[in-house]
Specification:
Blueprint lengths: L1 E4 L9 E3 L2 H10 L6 E5 L4 E9 L2 E4 L3 E2 L7 E7 L5 H12 L3 E5 L13 H18 L8 E3 L3 H8 L4 E5 L8 H4 L11 E6 L7 H10 L2 E3 L11 H12 L4
Parallel strand pairs: 1-3, 7-8, 7-11, 8-9, 10-11, 10-12
Antiparallel strand pairs: 2-5, 3-4, 4-5, 4-6
Length: 243
């Protein structure tokens, strides 16, 4: 079923005409009268519609999007090089990430400058939107960047369960984290932080512990910077019963 994100959902029983990028997309799909499509406000509410003719839809009753996870999981990622960020944004959106936040760290190979970053963020947001449409998400995850590692830590620490994945952590993993004190995976917010190609420095790990983040392993194998956030997110979604 085709999915179109709109700024505001129309009222039930009215007719709505697709425009802009949605209209262009609909023309490619060659929608036919009687075909069912979905409008979504990007904030978790769906509105099933029926094609009347061309780009005109008959609007049905709105309802919560069933594809949104029970907890909000935000990924904090050190800037990767090349186009690795695009891959992570697409797949993380499909898996249910609530937001993606990029930050500079000590071992970042790539550090977008003030001139190039806005264009990158604009492209990254379009990738998130496209992935949200394809995977029938009810929310388009915002993609943004912060100026420093310290700022990323401060934001991540506000989550109910903030986690940093570190390749040199040998024993403590996600299973151990969520077993502590009878904690469950029902926390409303989680933050998962991963490093760049060079990982994190020992000093950055000390900073993370001081900020209140739990330092976890993702297993005995060294994962690439584009693999680690997706592996961590997948593990969390499985624990949430979302997979």
């Amino acid at each position: 079923m085709a999915r179109f994100f709109v700024d505001e959902l129309p009222h039930e029983g009215t007719e709505y005409t697709l425009d802009g990028e949605n209209a262009a997309h609909a023309k490619v799909l060659r929608l036919r009268p009687g075909e069912e499509v979905t409008l979504c406000d990007g904030r978790g509410t769906d509105c099933p519609c029926t094609v009347v003719e061309g780009l005109t839809l008959r609007v049905g009753a709105s309802l919560p999007c069933p594809a949104e996870p029970s907890a909000q999981v935000t990924l904090y990622l050190a800037f990767p090089k090349a186009d690795k960020a695009e891959h992570v944004i697409q797949k993380a959106t499909e898996l249910g990430a609530a937001a993606l936040v990029f930050f500079p760290s000590r071992y970042c190979v790539s550090r977008p400058d003030e001139k190039s970053l806005p264009k990158k963020l604009e492209r990254w947001q379009k990738i998130a939107r496209s992935a949200a449409e394809q995977s029938r998400r009810g929310v388009i995850p915002p993609v943004r960047a912060v100026d420093s590692y310290a700022q990323a830590l401060a934001e991540a620490a506000l989550a109910d369960k903030p986690v940093l994945f570190y390749e040199n952590e040998a024993h403590f993993g996600l299973r151990d984290l969520f077993a502590l004190d009878g904690q469950s995976m029902a926390a409303s917010t989680l933050a998962l932080m991963t490093g760049a190609e060079g990982g994190f420095s020992e000093e950055e790990i000390v900073q993370a512990r001081a900020a209140g983040l739990s330092i976890c392993t993702l297993g005995p194998r060294i994962l690439r910077c584009e693999t680690a956030p997706l592996a961590g997110l997948t593990a969390v979604m499985y624990a949430l019963g979302e997979l």
